[in-house]
Write a structure and sequence with these properties.
Strand content: 25-35%
Number of strands: 19
Mean pLDDT: 78
Low-confidence stretches: 19-23, 167-171, 205-210, 275-280
Order of helices and strands: HEEEEEHEEEEEEEHEEEHHEEEE
Helix content: 10-25%
Distance between the termini: 91 Å
Radius of gyration: 34 Å
Strand order of the largest sheet: 2-1-3-17-6-7
Largest sheet: 6 strands, antiparallel
Structural class: alpha+beta
Number of domains: 2
């Protein structure tokens, strides 16, 4: 075979092989679908702080008006809640602030308030005559949820479970605690404490107006029972004549009560069994334990005072802040001043 014929034969064989492979490739089956136009969008979480004519937006930079961007969603330029001057012992001042979640998503962790920094004592500007005391320790502070009527900080606050003092009794009335209404379970943050009230007849003094007098004897019996059960709680009577049970620690504990077995204790004491974090008496009172200094030290950016959980989109809550200069304040706080800032956080 000549060289030319050998080359032609080689080319023919390569061509046939290529045709065979090509035929196999073109015979493959295919099918496909496409999901197009998918999106992932976020909502907004913006807080407004309203006091009188001032509406402060978290994404703004001044006391009034909203910002265009949420890149910086922290506004430290809101108007001062108080600007009080020339006060004397026993003077009381209040300010109402309304918080609104104007965003489109709920603040699942809720709304909190805390001291931006510790209360700072100092001298009143342009004052000539000065004492040496600490005004921050002498000004008593309260936070009342005016929407629900619950005291969140101040006398009668903490997470309080309310029970109505036995109503409708005349002077000298009594309530009997026996084997069918002497037991209940108190639960604080998931831990239950079996409580047994000492059996007996609890009555009020013949010179005490109903129902507060009776409430006092019941509260005393409850306190003894709580102590015996090693429950970290206190029992007392509010200024409105209400018997209440509250965790002894300052904070935002969840508290609830439940009857034990067939007992009717809750009915006897007119207490609800529903768990609550709302808490508080029907009105705040003032006491030295709830001073401006104590508030700003106890509630910080790490652990704020929980006000409501969750704080839903569009929700609005009004809070009354109260200040009272201690009745027992002495001359050492003359010419003094307390400076403080509050931060409201929704998250």
């Amino acid at each position: 075979m000549t060289t030319v014929r050998k080359l032609l034969l080689a080319l023919l064989l390569v061509s046939l092989a290529g045709s065979a492979f090509g035929a196999g490739t073109f015979a493959t089956f295919n099918a496909s679908t496409t999901n197009g136009g998918a999106t992932f969008a976020s909502g907004s979480l913006v807080l407004t702080n309203n006091q009188g004519a001032n509406t402060c937006f978290s994404n703004g930079t001044t006391a009034n008006g909203a910002g265009a961007s949420t890149d910086n969603n922290t506004n430290g330029a809101c108007a001062a809640a108080f600007a009080l001057d020339l006060k004397k012992p026993n003077d009381v001042s209040t300010a109402t602030l309304t918080m609104t979640n104007v965003g489109s998503v709920a603040a699942s962790a809720g709304l909190q308030v805390y001291g931006t920094a510790n209360c700072t004592p100092g001298n009143r500007v342009a004052e000539t005559y000065l004492g040496t005391g600490n005004m921050c320790e002498q000004v008593m502070f309260s936070v009342l949820d005016s929407t629900s009527g619950a005291c969140k900080y101040g006398g009668g606050s903490s997470t309080t479970l309310l029970g109505t003092a036995i109503a409708g009794l005349t002077t000298g009335g009594t309530v009997v605690i026996g084997t069918t209404n002497d037991q209940f379970t108190l639960t604080i943050d998931g831990t239950g404490y079996p409580v047994t009230i000492t059996n007996g007849t609890y009555g009020m003094s013949t010179n005490t107006t109903a129902p507060t007098g009776l409430a006092t004897t019941l509260a005393g019996a409850l306190q003894g029972a709580l102590t015996a059960a090693s429950a970290p709680a206190i029992a007392g009577v509010g200024p409105d004549g209400i018997v209440y049970i509250a965790p002894s620690a300052v904070g935002n504990q969840v508290i609830s009560v439940a009857n034990t077995g067939g007992d009717t204790t809750l009915t006897t004491l007119s207490m609800t069994s529903t768990s609550t974090t709302a808490g508080g008496q029907a009105a705040c009172t003032y006491d030295a334990a709830h001073s401006l200094m104590n508030f700003t030290k106890a509630f910080t950016s790490t652990t704020g005072l929980n006000l409501v959980t969750p704080f839903n989109a569009g929700a609005s809550k009004a809070y009354v802040l109260g200040l009272k200069l201690d009745t027992n304040a002495t001359n050492n706080i003359q010419g003094k001043q307390a400076s403080f800032s509050l931060t409201w956080l929704e998250s």
